[in-house]
Here is the input.
Amino acid sequence: MLERLFDRLEQKSFGVRDFRKHVHRIDGTTVNEAGHSHRVGFVTGPPWPSPRGHVHRVVGATASGKTSHSHEVSGWTSPSTSTDANHTHTVSLRTKNAESHVHRINGVTASFIPSRTAAYRTEAQDGVFPE
Here is the structure.
């Protein structure tokens, strides 16, 4: 019963269902460092309130690709003050050090996706742009 009340309040307040559970995909390529780059494909965690809107936790690892290593990634998206289904977040992260180097990940998340399950089934357009 409480869940249904939250669903209705959420729909009325944000204009979208499942705002409390929504996530974003981050797909693209890291900035080239040490002569190579890595593919990234993450699904963020659900929204966390922040002073300027909400943010999402990002945790994962890059693909190794043609290299013998990958890089762990953890951080947060930028805040988004928009709450509609078309909102995105800026991403500006650094990977953890591996093989004596790090990579930058700069770009934009894909739009609102109602759940992690849906996010894994969704193909997102590249939103991470190498410099």
Notes: The beta strands are 25-29, 39-43, 47-50, 53-61, 72-76, 90-94, 104-108. The chain has a mean pLDDT of 86.
